[in-house]
Amino acid sequence: MLKAGAGALLAGGAAYGVYQYTQPKKDALKMIISGGPGSGKGTQCDLLVTKYGVKHISTGDALRHHVKTGTDLGKEAKAYMERGDLVPDSLVIGICKAEMETSEAKTNGWLLDGMPRTKAQCDALETMGLVPNLFLRLDVPDEVMMERACGRRQDPVTRQIYHIKYKKAPTEEIEKRLIIRSDDTVEKMTNRIAQYHKNMSAVSGSYTEKLVVVDGNRKPTDVFPVVCDAIDKALAK
């Protein structure tokens, strides 16, 4: 398991020591983007990084990297991910903590993607002083999320995500090397969507005053301006 230093998380995620991060400048974006698997978070995050220059922290990508490279954290998380279950809070928070300590996140602001997914994770973020100025949720019907996720393919070289229907690889060379991520199967997606709905009410309840819900069942180019409008309003407060 990833070992935390000062303010280490305790076993099982039951309690967390006080750990305060150096926060980004006041007008920097501090945002959590939420939504079910296949809701379009990754696409919106790519666009937001380009526009706002924030540090994109994807706990899902980080976990998959640890599994692939065989770290202690990856070995512990692998069994959960193979079943499509939520990875224990302690592991997810440990990854988030490491990413938040980067100079990029402290200087440019952050965009947290894939966390929090439980009330315990919400509480841990607040304890660490990681308070967003916007919690944005993309709402997409379950059947649409299933189609989107199961059609995804990843380039193992660039880690870029493509789709067999909506975003095909630009060249035959890239198309040949694309892979299906282990959690993008019907069986695992069914479990992941159920887990998402189970935890979303508790998570959203922790950010009632910062919550903005956006209809994600549209083209990414139609969703993005709505997301940007919500961000600009949050930063103006």
How would you describe the overall organization of this protein?
With 237 residues, the protein is of the alpha/beta class. It is 48% helix and 14% strand. It contains 10 helices and 7 strands. It has helices at 41-52, 59-69, 72-83, 89-100, 103-108, 119-127, 142-150, 172-177, 186-205, 220-236; strands at 29-35, 55-58, 109-113, 134-139, 152-154, 161-163, 211-215. Strands 2-3-1-4-7 form a 5-stranded parallel sheet, sandwiched between helices. Helix 1 (41-52) crosses helix 10 (220-236) and helix 7 (142-150) crosses helix 9. The protein starts with 28 loop residues before the first strand and ends with a helix. 37% of the residues are buried.
Provide a compact summary of the structure.
The chain is of the alpha/beta class and 237 residues long. The protein is built from ten helices and seven strands. Keywords: Kinase, Nucleotide-binding, Transferase.
